[in-house]
Amino acid sequence: MVELPWDYKWSSTAFNACIKNSDALIKDRSLNQDDMKAILLKQSDNYDTLEEKTRTGRPCGDESFTSLTEKLTGTKLKIRKAGR
């Protein structure tokens, strides 16, 4: 991936952060340049958790969310003991 969100080729972030002057899909900017950059550069309090869940393919939610997701998808998602 890229280090900064607006460096990603297919992202509209460069337009919204006023780095590019046009975007094929967006007509007007919803936030000013400073607001957009600040929002995108701020790391979430849950950044480490989100990164770990993304890396392992586990849902990023509480126990009830994980249980419901298991029920709806028919897939076991809770962390289980390593086994054979």
Report on this structure.
This protein is mainly alpha-helical. 40% of the residues lie in helices and 0% in strands. The protein contains four helices and no strands. It has helices at 13-16, 33-41, 47-56, 63-73. The longest helix has 11 residues, at 63-73. The model has no long low-confidence stretch (mean pLDDT 78).
Keywords, separated by commas or semicolons:
mainly alpha, 84 residues, 40% helix
Shape: elongated
Number of strands: 0
Largest sheet: none
SSE topology string:
HHHH
What is the share of helical residues? 40-55%
Point out poorly predicted stretches.
Answer: none
Please give the count of helices: 4
Mean pLDDT: 78
Distance between the termini: 34 Å
The class by helix and strand makeup works out as mainly alpha
The rounded Rg comes to: 18 Å
Percent strand equals under 5%
List the helices and strands and how they pair.
Blueprint: H1 13-16, H2 33-41, H3 47-56, H4 63-73
Characterize this entry briefly:
This protein is mainly alpha-helical and 84 residues long. It has four helices and no strands.
